[in-house]
Design brief:
The protein is mainly α. The chain contains 22 helices and no strands.
Length: 416
C-alpha cells in the first residue's frame, strides 16, 4: 500500500466515519480529501451519481452487504480499520470480508502435510474419481455460480487431505496436487464472491501445494489468478508484476497456461493505458493459445474454458480499458455469440461488459437492451462483479445524458 493511501486513511475524519459506519460522512470526507466528483466516486464503488448524492445527504442508507462490500473494495478501506470495528462490535462490519466457510482454516491446512489418526486407503481409482468429481463441480459452477458449491468443495477437500497420510510415493504427490487444485477452485469461488482475503489465502495455499507437488501448471495458474484479482481491483502495475511472475517463474507450464498469463499481463497494461504493450502481449497470448489447441491433451483440466472464443472476450475487456469502444463492442459481441449457454455466469459477466462498451460507443439503446437481458442473471448469480459492471455502465450513460441511463438505474434499483 502506497504512502499516499496510508496517509489518506490515517485522516481522523475518514477513520471516524469507518468506525461509526457513517457512510454519508465517509463519502463526503473522501471526496473533500481526494477532490473526486460524485460521479467518479460512483464509478469507484459501482453506484450511479444520484445514489452517491442521496447517500451523502442522508436520504439513502447503506444497508446492503453487497453495496458495503463495493464501497470497501472500491475505496480501498484498509483491513485494519475494518478489523478494529469488528473487534469493538463483535462482528465484522462488512460480512463479505470474512464469510464463514470461505477462508482456509488452520486445522485443514495442517492436515495435508501432517499426521492423520487413521490412514485411509489410497489408490489410483479413488484419485481418478476425485479428479472427475472436481471437473464436474467446475462445470456446475459455470451454470449455477459459486455460492451453492463452497461448502461442498470444502468437504471434498477434507476428503482429499484425509488421504494424505495413507499415500506413498507418486500417490502422495498426486494427493497434494489434487489438494492444490481444490484450493485453487475454492480461491476462485471466494474471489467470485468478493471475499478477497479468503481468496488470497487459498491462492497462497494452492501455490505452496503446487510447488510441493512439482506442478508447474498450477503454480503458474495461481499467480495468474492473483494477477486477475489485482486487475479486478484496478491495480494495473501489480497485475503486470504477478502475471510476469506466472510466465517466467514456471518455465515448465503448458502453452495454454503461459498464454493465460500473457493475456493477464496484457490486461494489466491496458489498465495503465499502455496500448502498445497490451496489443503485443495479446498477440503473443493468442499465438500460445493456437499452439495449445493443437495438443489439448497437454493442457491441465482446469483450462477447459480457454479457447479462441474466450480469448476474443478477453481482448474485448482490454479494449474497454483502452476506451477503444467500437473494437470492444465487436470483440465482445463476437465472443458472446459463440459462448455456449451453459456458461451462464460468464455470459452474464460479458453481457455486462458489452453493455459498458456500447454505452462508451454512444449506442445507448443497444446498451440498455443488452443490460435488460443481463439483469436477471446478474441479480441471481452475477453479484458482485457483473452487477457492479452494470452500475458502471448506467453511470456512463447518465454522464452522457442518455435517457436510457435512468431506465437502467430504475431496473437495477428494483433488484438492488
Amino acid at each position: 500500500m502506497g504512502d499516499q493511501v496510508v496517509t489518506l486513511w490515517a485522516h481522523p475524519g475518514l477513520a471516524a466515519a469507518v468506525a461509526s459506519e457513517d457512510w454519508a460522512a465517509l463519502f463526503r470526507t473522501y471526496r473533500q480529501l481526494t477532490g473526486v466528483s460524485q460521479t467518479k466516486l460512483g464509478e469507484l464503488v459501482g453506484l450511479v451519481q444520484p445514489d452517491v448524492s442521496a447517500i451523502e445527504r442522508g436520504r439513502r442508507r447503506v444497508t446492503s452487504v453487497e453495496v458495503r462490500q463495493r464501497v470497501v473494495t472500491g475505496l480501498g478501506i484498509p483491513s485494519e480499520l475494518l478489523a478494529a470495528v469488528g473487534q469493538r462490535s463483535g462482528a465484522v462490519p462488512v460480512p463479505g470480508l470474512a464469510l464463514a466457510g470461505l477462508a482456509p482454516d488452520h486445522d485443514l491446512l495442517e492436515r495435508v502435510t501432517g499426521a492423520v489418526g487413521d490412514a485411509a486407503r489410497v489408490d489410483s481409482a479413488t484419485l481418478d474419481w476425485l479428479d472427475r468429481l472436481l471437473a464436474e463441480h467446475r462445470r456446475a459452477e459455470d451454470v449455477i455460480g459459486s455460492r451453492p458449491l463452497v461448502d461442498v468443495m470444502r468437504r471434498q477437500l477434507n476428503t482429499v487431505v484425509e488421504l494424505h497420510s495413507g499415500a506413498r510415493g507418486e500417490l502422495a504427490r498426486r494427493v497434494v496436487r489434487l489438494a492444490a487444485e481444490h484450493a485453487q477452485f475454492l480461491a476462485w469461488m471466494a474471489q467470485d464472491q468478493a471475499a478477497s482475503a479468503a481468496a488470497l489465502g487459498w491462492y497462497d495455499r494452492a501455490h505452496e501445494w503446487a510447488l510441493e507437488a512439482g506442478d508447474a501448471d498450477m503454480a503458474a495458474t495461481t499467480l495468474s489468478m492473483k494477477a486477475h484479482m489485482a486487475w479486478s481491483g484496478g491495480r494495473g502495475t501489480r497485475c503486470v508484476q504477478l502475471a510476469e511472475a506466472a510466465r517466467w517463474s514456471t518455465p515448465g507450464a503448458s502453452l495454454g497456461v503461459r498464454g493465460m498469463a500473457a493475456q493477464m499481463e496484457a490486461r494489466g497494461h491496458a489498465l495503465t493505458g499502455d496500448a502498445d504493450h497490451t496489443h503485443r502481449l495479446l498477440d503473443e497470448a493468442q499465438d500460445l493459445i493456437g499452439r495449445a489447441a493443437e495438443h489439448p491433451e497437454d493442457e491441465p483440466p482446469w483450462m477447459y474454458f480457454y479457447d479462441e472464443t474466450w480469448f476474443s472476450l478477453q481482448r474485448g475487456m482490454a479494449e474497454i480499458h483502452l476506451r477503444a469502444w467500437p473494437t470492444a463492442v465487436e470483440l465482445l459481441g463476437k465472443g458472446l455469440a459463440a459462448l455456449p449457454d451453459d456458461y451462464r455466469r460468464d455470459k452474464t459477466w460479458y453481457r455486462a461488459c458489452l453493455t459498458h462498451a456500447l454505452a462508451g460507443s454512444g449506442e445507448a439503446a443497444q446498451a440498455l437492451a443488452v443490460a435488460l437481458e443481463a439483469v436477471p442473471d446478474a441479480a441471481a448469480i452475477g453479484r458482485p462483479h457483473a452487477w457492479n459492471e452494470l452500475h458502471r455502465a448506467a453511470a456512463l450513460l447518465l454522464r452522457r445524458g442518455a435517457p436510457e441511463g435512468r431506465e437502467l438505474v430504475a431496473v437495477l434499483r428494483a433488484h438492488d
